[in-house]
Input
Amino acid sequence: MTPILVYDFKNGFPQTLKFFAWMILEMFGVFGINIFPKYSHQSISSFSLYFLNEFRETIFAPSIYISSLVLLVIVLINLLLIFKLYTKNKLKQNYIVFYFSTVVLIAGFFSQRAESSAYMTMIFAYIIIFAALSVNYLTKLNKIIFTLILVIIFPILNSN
Output
């Protein structure tokens, strides 16, 4: 953004103003108000199916149902982790920044509903970190049982 801002300071902010105008038009599109009729968003159901399929390919799951279950478990474990950290007053700034940026990124991703694999690359790192936090949390609950389960599950998933 720095080159754009330097250009705008010299030329009266034409690009920055157009960017903010574009953001306002996009916000209308999220709510179903299309200023430009030729540009329409995908339906939430078709986009959710696309997102789950892309997530399935990311974690190498054999079916979309397994990937949906894995995603649900990861989200629930992370919500439980946030709740436990918050109740123990151990919620650090890095967790707050990570979860807030994740919510903003995914909200923007779903508001645009652009079915493009290029947008999924922005979410890959978050998916990996979410999964790692979930596995780390599970292994801390009962180390022997969950470690055995993970040692059994990962080779099975990798063989698929």
About this structure: Residues 117-141 form the longest helix (25 residues). The helical segments are 2-11, 14-30, 44-59, 64-87, 93-112, 117-141, 143-159. Residues 1-40 form one domain. DSSP finds seven helices and no strands in the chain.
